Amino acid sequence: MSDGRGTLVARMDGRWTRRLHVLLTTATVLFTLLLVGGLVQSAAMAVPGEPRGGAGFAGLRLPSAGVPLGGTLVPGVHAVDVRVEASLYDPERAPLLAGLFLFTWLPTVLIIVVALFLLTRITTRGLAGDRALFSADTVGDLRRIGAVLLIGSPVAFALDFGAKTVAAHLTVTDAWVALGDAVSPVAGMLMGMGAFVVAEVIGRGLVMLDELEGTI
């Protein structure tokens, strides 16, 4: 009875591993295509002349004082805070703005692609069996994921902030740039620490398994 239950659990685990592997592989491909599309958009921005395909430096803050709100609010409603973002294009500084625009998205997408690739490699071992999954190679990949997220997230946030600050002062009068969403880098760093914790747990489990096998 117990052998039958163990076989059923093993089959279910293998099924979920295959599904997870397919999902991670699909996500890796999609984000890689997103990266390529972003590079194409940045290349289009770098060509002086009229903006092509609506390509512009996205996410730049405009002074809210110049934005009329009359007729857009329900009577009795007051705007407490107004934040306006625009995609701007300057043909005279097109190559410079295109280069700055890369720093606003490329580091983040690269971090995601690398993390997804490493996760896909881990699930590939899971398809090969438990011994391949719970191995020193998996521990190494988890630590790499942790390092990429823990270090890369604040670096990507700083590059995005710096690039938008420079671009705003080149294109907007009385430019100011808020720090932006600080939740994303914090979340990335927390996930990175989580990857280190999982790697530590698996690593210690492998040491205990080696000691147990040596005793037996």
TrEMBL record:
It comes from the Bacteria. InterPro entries: DUF2975. The keyword Ribonucleoprotein does not apply. Pfam families: DUF2975. The chain crosses the membrane at residues 20-40, 96-119, 145-163, 175-199. Keywords: Membrane, Transmembrane, Transmembrane helix. This is DUF2975 domain-containing protein. It comes from Nonomuraea muscovyensis.
